Each structure stands twice: as C-alpha cells, then as structure tokens.
C-alpha cells in the first residue's frame, strides 16, 4: 500500500481542483491522505464535506514543507503500529497543485517492487499550463553540478524543454522532486527523512544526496506522468524563496560534500553567490539582493549546528563517487558555452 500524502496549507482551491484526479487515479494501490499544516482558510471544512473518503491529519501550526512531512509520516507510522492505518510499503509526497493521470502509480510501484536497491523514484513532471513542456520543479529527474546547482532532464536553470520523448527511458538520477516523490518507507525511517530545519526548498535534494551517498538508487519513471502547476506557494522571484534556496543550498553542501572538496566548492560558491546578488542589484531588485546577503549571513551563523550531520553523512558514505553528480559547472556551461539543455551539459 502507498500512502499518498498531500501537505496542505491554505490550499483549499488547489485541492478542490486537483484532488479529484488523485482520488480517482489512485484506487487500489494508494490511500490518499491530506496533512493540514495549520490552515486558516476553509480547507478542513471543504475536505470533510467534499472528500470524506480522504484520511485527514490535522496539525496545530505550519511546520513548513520539510518538517510537515516528517510529522505526517511519524503519525502514520505510529497509527500503523497501533493498527489504525495500513502498513504502508511506500510514502508518496505529492504537491496539492499536481494533476495525476490514469495508471500513474503502477509503473513506479512495479519498478520499486522489482528493484530492491532503489530507495525512491519520481514520475515525469509536465507543466499543467503548457502540457507539452517539462515543468520546472523536477521535469524528468534531477541532478546537481559540482557547485550545488540543481538541474533536470528537461530543465536547466529557468529554461524548460518541450517533451519529444527524448527522456522516456528509466534513468538513475541524483534527486527526485518533492512535488511527486515516492520513497520506500524503510528508507525514509532508516535514513532520517527530510531535514526540518530547512523549512522548504532543497530539502528533497539533501535527502536524496544522503540516500545516494549510502549506495541507494533513485530513478525517474517517465512511463508515469503528472502535471504540476508550480509556484503555488511562492513566486519564482519572491525574496523569501531566494533566501531559502541560497541558505539551504549552502547548508546542503556543507552537510554532504566530501572533505577534499568542501573548501574549494565553498570558495567558488562565495564568488558565484555574490555575482548573483550583484545581478539582482543591477536590475534594481534590492529585496532579492538582500535575500542573498541574509542567506549567506545566516548560513555562517548556523552551519556548525550541522557538524554532527556532516560527520554521520561522511561516515556512512560509500567510497564510490555518485555518477549523477555532474563534475562540470552549470554556470560555465549555461552562460559561457550557451548549453541550454540537459543533453548538451550532461553527456
């Protein structure tokens, strides 16, 4: 059984629009569950009235994306132990603004059932409002470059490709999108779930890095397709999103980079982050300039709180390198060599 968990915060309109497809297309393999992150709109009343078949977990505050899922899965695990819920073999994190398609669960479930070395997977993620184009948050599976910049099969920085079947093979990836992430229940609990301190952004990449460094595989199953609105919580250029992305990305690097790379990568990131900040300033975008500055300041202030995590991650890492981590620079390839697609960069 798959626990399909949608984390909601004031998303009544989104759920009313997209939840019917999830309920209809998940019968048999999955139980649909909404974990409400302390909403103060009419989400709870709407769910109880219009979707009585959906299990509802109610939180008294907004825990954020990362800790919200940690709390939800801890509750489900406890309920399963007490016989109040099924014993789920898999958890599936699903955004409230995702439209699923008939048969979306079977390809992912079947692959996981026959590949015990695989910890997590994701479907092909297409844009809900441009349905022939990959969606920014996940596309056809995620990778990172040497300096921590994420990109995907089908998306490099803000450039998304049209889908012509070029990524229709099942592929090992570095990270699976939190918009539609299916993970083996045992891997979630053994390897610690999401880092709640991140609140939101980069937490799924950090979790997947932990899995990959410990020898567990992550794949994209493009035979499963979903459509994602994206940006439903914060717009792409929102200073809060900029702040969380920069702070959390630096923290993720600090937690996971091999010892021999840490100083070099962090020195390069200092330069690259300030270039990004000055670009904001040159465009007159002072709020996002300040967001980058605050992110770097706050990373320095809290990074040693992650020393134990770093020690554990390095101790449990396998000696093999991770092939889905690109050794090149995404910035150099994109801006200097004008390579704008995944196939041009990751050969």
Shape: globular
Q: Average pLDDT across residues?
A: 95
Number of helices: 12
Cα radius of gyration in angstroms: 19 Å
- Compute the separation of the termini in Å: 37 Å
Give the H and E element order.
EHEHEHEEHEEEEEEEEHHEHHHHHH
Relative strand content: 15-25%
- Which percent bin holds the helix content? 40-55%
**Beta strand count:** 14
Structural class given helices, strands, pairing?
alpha/beta
Largest sheet: 10 strands, mixed
**Low-confidence spans: pLDDT under 50, at least 5 residues?**
none
Relevant terms:
alpha/beta, 42% helix, ten-stranded mixed β-sheet, 347 residues, single chain, 12 helices, two-stranded antiparallel sheet
Q: Can you describe this structure?
A:
Helix 7 (239-256) runs parallel beside helix 9 and helix 8 packs antiparallel against helix 9 (286-302). The longest helix has 24 residues, at 259-282. By secondary structure, the protein is of the alpha/beta class. The model has no long low-confidence stretch (mean pLDDT 95). The strands form three sheets. Strands 1, 2, 3, 4, 5, 6, 7, 12, 13 and 14 form a ten-stranded mixed β-sheet that branches. Helices cover 42% and strands 20% of the residues. Strand 1, helix 1 (12-25) and strand 2 form a beta-alpha-beta unit. The two termini are 37 Å apart. It is built from twelve helices and 14 strands. The protein has helices at residues 12-25, 43-50, 64-81, 105-114, 185-190, 203-213, 239-256, 259-282, 286-302, 307-316, 330-336, 342-345, and strands at residues 2-8, 30-36, 55-58, 90-94, 98-100, 118-127, 130-134, 142-144, 150-152, 155-156, 159-160, 171-172, 180-184, 217-228.
């Amino acid at each position: 059984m798959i626990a399909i968990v949608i984390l909601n915060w004031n998303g009544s309109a989104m759920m009313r629009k997209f939840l019917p497809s999830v309920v209809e297309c998940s019968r048999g393999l999955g139980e649909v569950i909404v974990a409400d992150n302390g909403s103060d709109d009419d989400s709870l009343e709407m769910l109880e009235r219009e979707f009585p078949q959906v299990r509802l977990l109610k939180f008294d505050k907004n825990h954020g994306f990362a800790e919200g899922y940690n709390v939800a899965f801890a509750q489900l695990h406890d309920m399963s132990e007490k016989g109040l819920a099924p014993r789920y073999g898999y958890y599936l994190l699903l955004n409230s603004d995702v439209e699923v398609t008939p048969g979306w669960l079977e390809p992912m479930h079947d692959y996981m059932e026959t590949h015990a070395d695989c910890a997590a997977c994701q479907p092909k993620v297409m844009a809900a409002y441009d349905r022939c184009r990959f969606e920014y948050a996940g596309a056809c599976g995620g990778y990172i470059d040497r300096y921590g910049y994420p990109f995907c099969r089908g998306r490099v920085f803000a450039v998304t490709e049209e889908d012509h079947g070029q990524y229709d093979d099942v592929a090992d990836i570095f990270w699976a999108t939190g918009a539609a992430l299916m993970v083996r229940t045992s891997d979630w609990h053994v390897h610690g779930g999401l880092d709640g301190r991140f609140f939101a952004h980069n937490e799924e990449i950090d979790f997947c890095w932990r899995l990959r460094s410990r020898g567990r595989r992550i794949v994209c199953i493009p035979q499963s397709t979903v459509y994602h609105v994206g940006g439903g919580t914060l717009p792409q250029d929102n200073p809060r999103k900029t702040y969380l992305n920069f702070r959390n990305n630096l923290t993720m690097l600090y937690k996971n980079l091999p010892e021999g790379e840490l100083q070099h990568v962090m020195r390069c990131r200092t330069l690259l982050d300030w270039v990004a900040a000055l670009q904001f300033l040159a465009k007159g975008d002072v709020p996002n300039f300040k967001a980058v500055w605050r992110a770097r300041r706050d990373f320095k202030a809290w990074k040693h709180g992650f020393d134990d995590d770093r020690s554990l991650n390095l101790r449990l890492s396998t000696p093999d390198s991770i092939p889905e981590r690109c050794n090149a620079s995404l910035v150099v390839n994109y801006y200097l060599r004008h390579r704008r697609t995944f196939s041009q960069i990751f050969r």
